[in-house]
From TrEMBL:
<keyword id="KW-1003">Cell membrane</keyword>
<feature type="transmembrane region" description="Helical">
    <location>
        <begin position="140"/>
        <end position="160"/>
    </location>
</feature>
<feature type="domain" description="ABC transmembrane type-1">
    <location>
        <begin position="76"/>
        <end position="266"/>
    </location>
</feature>
<keyword id="KW-0813">Transport</keyword>
<dbReference type="InterPro" id="IPR000515">
    <property type="entry name" value="MetI-like"/>
</dbReference>
<feature type="transmembrane region" description="Helical">
    <location>
        <begin position="76"/>
        <end position="99"/>
    </location>
</feature>
<feature type="transmembrane region" description="Helical">
    <location>
        <begin position="12"/>
        <end position="36"/>
    </location>
</feature>
<keyword id="KW-0812">Transmembrane</keyword>
<dbReference type="GO" id="GO:0055085">
    <property type="term" value="P:transmembrane transport"/>
</dbReference>
<protein>
    <submittedName>
        <fullName>Carbohydrate ABC transporter permease</fullName>
    </submittedName>
</protein>
<keyword id="KW-0472">Membrane</keyword>
<comment type="similarity">
    <text>Belongs to the binding-protein-dependent transport system permease family.</text>
</comment>
<keyword id="KW-1133">Transmembrane helix</keyword>
<feature type="transmembrane region" description="Helical">
    <location>
        <begin position="245"/>
        <end position="266"/>
    </location>
</feature>
<dbReference type="InterPro" id="IPR035906">
    <property type="entry name" value="MetI-like_sf"/>
</dbReference>
<feature type="transmembrane region" description="Helical">
    <location>
        <begin position="111"/>
        <end position="134"/>
    </location>
</feature>
<feature type="transmembrane region" description="Helical">
    <location>
        <begin position="191"/>
        <end position="212"/>
    </location>
</feature>
Length: 280
């Protein structure tokens, strides 16, 4: 009798959890679905009452308008170059710094680490003008490198890597590698890197998506349409008095597709990293 009651309670509890997750998933996915609906509909559907919730047949037509207004594919290539370069550099610097902060002792280590973390709370808008002046004096305006340079040092990435290395890489393994004659960089490359690959996937997705969605700094330093990233190019579609929302959201929809592809490719490593961290 008690087993039947326990099974019934477990079934009701699981049903409630699944129902809750379904509702949350619906509210999370609906904005993307609505964006797709608007991308396939004429501009008039944006303010229609009742709202349009069924996809239309204007996806190709709206996207053709986007191609006529902005260098969409060139902007996508520029964005991919910026995001991939920043992601690779951040992973390299953050993992090296995280390894050093986690496994080495040197004077001022804690002060330096907390100084890096403190920069997270500083609003990026405060440094916009001096950073722009430095980039302008260096002659980097309208160069993609100018859109990358501010994001190479990632305090959150350093913190995440330090925590992951500290918990996942045993000190005994480091000492054994040193006894075998490995240099510090050889230990990083041959011992640490294979262990922290799940954290690489997590940090990589975070950095890639954040840089992909960055607008303010890129809008400030990129003025030539040939150097536009996709966010700056899409913003130029909104400069007219009468905005074609179907065209605008069609561009936004296709600009979102690479992010979904990146997440689908690395989601297993991303989930395994989260699961491993929760178990530890």
């Amino acid at each position: 009798m008690s087993r039947e009651v326990g099974t019934k309670k477990w079934g009701i509890g699981r049903l409630a959890i699944y129902l809750f997750l379904t509702v949350i998933s619906f509210f999370s996915i609906f904005p993307f679905y609505w964006m797709f609906v608007m991308a396939t509909s004429p501009s008039s559907a944006y303010n229609s009452i009742p709202p349009t919730i069924i996809p239309g047949d204007q996806l190709v037509a709206n996207f053709k308008k986007v191609l006529e207004m902005i260098p969409f594919f060139q902007s996508m290539v520029n964005t991919l170059i910026v995001c991939l370069t920043v992601t690779i550099v951040v992973l390299f610097i953050s993992s090296l710094a995280g390894f050093a902060f986690a496994k080495f002792k040197f004077p001022g280590k804690n002060i330096l680490f907390f100084s890096i973390l403190f920069t997270i709370v500083i609003p990026p808008q405060l440094g916009l003008i001096p950073q722009y002046l430095l980039v302008a004096k260096a002659g980097l305006l309208d160069h993609l490198f100018a859109a990358m340079i501010l994001f190479f040092l990632n305090p959150l990435g350093i913190f995440l890597m330090r925590q992951y290395v500290n918990q996942s890489v045993p000190d005994e393994l480091i000492e054994a590698a040193k006894l075998d004659g490995c240099s510090n960089f050889r230990i990083y490359r041959s011992v640490v890197l294979p262990i922290i690959l799940p954290a690489f996937a997590t940090l990589g997705i975070i950095v890639f998506t954040s840089v992909w969605g960055e607008f303010l700094w890129q809008f400030t330093v990129l003025r030539d349409p040939e150097s536009y990233t996709i966010q700056v190019a899409l913003a130029s579609l909104n400069n007219t008095n009468k905005v074609d929302f179907g065209m605008l959201l069609s561009g936004v929809f296709w600009a979102t597709v690479p992010l979904l592809i990146v997440f689908l490719i690395f989601n297993k490593l991303f989930i395994s990293s989260i699961a491993e961290g929760s178990v530890k």
